[in-house]
What we know:
By secondary structure, the protein is α+β, with helices and mostly antiparallel strands. Helix content is about 40%, strand content about 20%. α3 (about 40-50) crosses α4 (about 60-65).
Amino acid sequence: MQRTFAIIKPDAVKKGVSGQILARIEGAGFTVRGMRMIHMSKGEAEGFYHVHSARPFFGGLTDFMSSGPCVVLCLEAPDAIKQWRDLMGATDPAKAEAGTMRKDFGASIDNNATHGSDAPETAAFELGYFFRGMEL
């Protein structure tokens, strides 16, 4: 079993599709090991996305991620990182395959409904950023 980190982003929460996304997650065979609704401050978003701090989209990304509540998740399944990334689809919803989260719930490359870790090291950092100690 492997764990990965996921976010239901502020655009999806605002649209009221969190429950649909969670149902699909569980329907795809993931076990939810941790879940919390949070509203990140700008500083928390900057800390979380620090690896992108030199990129031109950093300010817009952290503004967006701190614009409203989101749902943070710890998901567990065999090969969870790859499975979750496949279920999310391409970053740009216009290029995502039919039936993926981003195709069905995302509006644009900036408002694409979900986030997921891309590697075991990233998952470890991201899970530790939002879930402490015995929470998992």
